[in-house]
Design brief:
Blueprint: E1 22-24, E2 30-32, H1 33-37, E3 52-53, H2 59-64
Antiparallel strand pairs: 1-2, 1-3
The structure holds zinc ion (ZN) (2 copies).
């Protein structure tokens, strides 16, 4: 099951489970669309994998399978990657 992390690893912008702005790699490193398409160029800075739109989880499923609340953030940000 996808973790559905709550924010972008680069800019800490909120990415709720129903957001269509979230991008993930196969390891669930999570970024916003802006960072994924600009500074990252569509590649995960952690593993080099491709970033894809994260599937959304509906409210009925979220009640049973809640999204992660564990915020993952790169302290140095993604600039310079
Ligand atoms: Zn971002
Ligand atoms: Zn990754």
């Amino acid at each position: 099951m996808l973790e559905l992390r709550p924010g972008c690893e680069c800019c800490d912008r909120d990415l709720p489970a129903d957001s269509d702005e979230a991008r993930v790699c196969s390891f669930e490193c999570t970024f916003c669309r802006t960072c994924a398409e600009t500074v990252l160029g569509g590649r995960c800075p952690n593993c080099g994998g491709e970033l894809q739109p994260r599937p959304r989880r509906g409210a009925d499923k979220l009640a049973k399978y809640p999204a992660s609340t564990q915020r993952v953030l790169k302290p140095q940000g993604c600039s310079g990657f």
